[in-house]
Design goal:
With 492 residues, this protein is of the alpha/beta class. Helices cover 35% and strands 20% of the residues. The chain folds into two domains: 148 residues, Leucine Aminopeptidase, subunit E, domain 1, CATH 3.40.220; 322 residues, Zn peptidases (Aminopeptidase, 3-Layer(aba) Sandwich). Helix 9 packs across helix 14.
Amino acid sequence: MLSFTSSLSPGVEGFAIFVNEKYGFRDKKGVLPKNVVQKINSFLSSLKVKKTDEDISSLDISEKQKCFIIKVKNKYESYWPQESGGSFFSYLKNFKDIKKIDFYIESLDFDKDKLVNFFSQFIFGFKLKSYTFNKYRTQNKEKFNKKIDFKIIANDKEKIKEKYKYYDSIKEGVFLCRDFVSEPPNVLNPKAYVEEIQKLSKFGLKIKAYNEKELKRLGMNSLLGVGQGSANESYLVTIEWNGKKNSLKNPLAFVGKGVCFDTGGISLKPARFMEEMKYDMAGSAVVVGLLKSLAIRKAKVNAVGVVGLVENMPGSNAQRPGDIVKSYSGKTIEVLNTDAEGRLVLADALTFTEKKYKPKFIIDLATLTGAIIVSLGEEYAGLFSNNDELSKNIFNASENVNEKVWRLPLHKNYDKLMNSTIADVQNINYAGGAGSITAAQFLQRFIINKTPWAHLDIAGMAFSKKAANLNPGGATGFGVRLLNNLVKEYYE
């Protein structure tokens, strides 16, 4: 948890102060020695002359100590303190000798509540950016794992601790999501994934895993068809959070695609970059991470997560192009391409969630289509919805945390592209075009009772080869902060 001090720590290698846009700061309680204040003021005067736009600067107080200057805007977006914290961690990585730092937060001339909120978010961003996944490295671990211990110079430590508990619960969900997405597919197969999810019961989550025998009895042939070419068993897992302490009536429902590895099946993918298909379970990881966060912070909502966990392999019993399966909903699906498998998993999971829980809404997340990356790149997730209010709430929540979504259309005219000549629906649009939209149209057919529903195609957002504001590159955890904010702002 957070560590506090009332003055500069003896021998600390660096300390950070926060200044306003005009490079002003305060030191009412004399935390900084006078000679240090003089050096800082002289440095700040030079920055004013240079009219630099840099948000972070540094100066040497001595040969063994640095002072970092963090400039805070007078007006900033709600997510800016988090991104400022992430940027500062990146900046510190350039100084190999600094392993400890003090944050002097009361140098910022904010009222107490604003200061506590600002700094809690700043540390949240700092920690999100510090994430590493070095579990399988056996050499030079320290080179890839920059850890910086910090202390906070502040009087209102209890208020900061209390406020940060909220952000720390979100961090736990984001890190769990990133961990799952980063795991190699020989480790995180569906069964191992189930076992990891079951460990979360210690947080008060009620977890039920349906094995293949149970899924066959339920009639989830669409989900089972995807996994039948793999030696690893398929599962559907429900994760319930009863935060209102009453019956789990009309919960908020989140559904995730959990294809632990996707070869494409018989419709085999090219070998180049196939290793990235271990990320095809990212939608499910977001759902699991979100439910962990809700449980840790004891969110006053009833919520359920449902994840379909499969492995899409081209084994001797693999599903073939041309097969027809009967889904849990009763609708039949012609499988024209076995690499359009995520929608087959979600089809059964969506109908099951709607029928079993009668939720207030359903939001599904999936790395569903390459087409969404062509459309939106790595800046926005694709949003599709049958409900304007839900769509608007998701959009606003995404803006608040800078996990951006962009709504694309759904329209009955697209349905004809997914109509099969010999079954109720086919799993791919062979006419060409609108790949992400027609995939969403497919999913919408399995919302049987007009439950408010939204689909987030996160194919471009779940993993990034380049670092971003709050992640160091690799698994991003995109979606956990967005959906947590949605719950907090609109449904809690």
